[in-house]
């Protein structure tokens, strides 16, 4: 499946849309700078998961459209594109894959 965003992570990277980060600083220009992403930003009390938007060329078990949850020790990298914050994890950070979910809230 083709990536759902115009980016491809290197190696075994996977990209998801990041939840709102509470500790972000907004400059007067309107650019938001997250104060470092942490695994706790991705914790959820009930399984909703995160839809995978893009995968790197060496990902073997995760594919675009899968819904995943991450290891609590994983620390993602992040970037912003068109005012949307994205997180980049590595495939080995994924602990749960639910590829039967069609609609993600």
Keywords:
105 residues; mainly beta; 10 Kd Chaperonin, Protein Cpn10, Chain O; two-stranded antiparallel sheet; 8 strands; 36% strand; globular
Explain what this protein looks like in three dimensions.
This protein has 105 residues and is mostly beta strands. The protein has a single domain, classed as 10 Kd Chaperonin, Protein Cpn10, Chain O, CATH 2.30.33.40. Helices cover 0% and strands 36% of the residues. Strands 6-7-1-4-5-8 form a six-stranded antiparallel beta sheet, with no helix packed on it. It is globular and about 40 Å long. 23% of the residues are buried.
Q: How many discrete domains?
A: 1
Q: Structural class, from secondary structure content?
A: mainly beta
Strand content: 35-45%
Number of strands: 8
CATH class: Mainly Beta
The number of helices is 0
What would CATH call the homologous superfamily? Answer: GroES chaperonin
Give the strand line-up of the largest sheet.
6-7-1-4-5-8
The Rg value, from CA coordinates, equals 14 Å
Main sheet characteristics:
6 strands, antiparallel
Give the N-terminus to C-terminus distance in angstroms.
21 Å
As a percent range, the share of helical residues equals under 10%
| Low confidence ranges | none
The CATH topology is what? Answer: 10 Kd Chaperonin, Protein Cpn10, Chain O
- Give the mean pLDDT: 77
> Rough shape?
globular
SSE sequence, one letter per element: EEEEEEEE
């Amino acid at each position: 499946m083709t990536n759902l965003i115009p980016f491809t992570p290197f190696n075994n990277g996977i990209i998801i849309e990041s939840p709102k980060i509470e500790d972000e600083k907004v400059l007067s220009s309107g650019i938001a700078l997250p104060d470092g992403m942490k695994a706790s930003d991705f914790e959820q009390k009930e399984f909703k998961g995160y839809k995978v938007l893009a995968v790197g060329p060496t990902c073997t078990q995760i594919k675009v459209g899968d819904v995943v949850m991450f290891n609590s020790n994983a620390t993602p990298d992040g970037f912003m594109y068109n005012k949307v914050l994205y997180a980049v994890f590595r495939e080995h950070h994924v602990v749960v894959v639910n590829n039967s979910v069609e609609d993600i809230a």
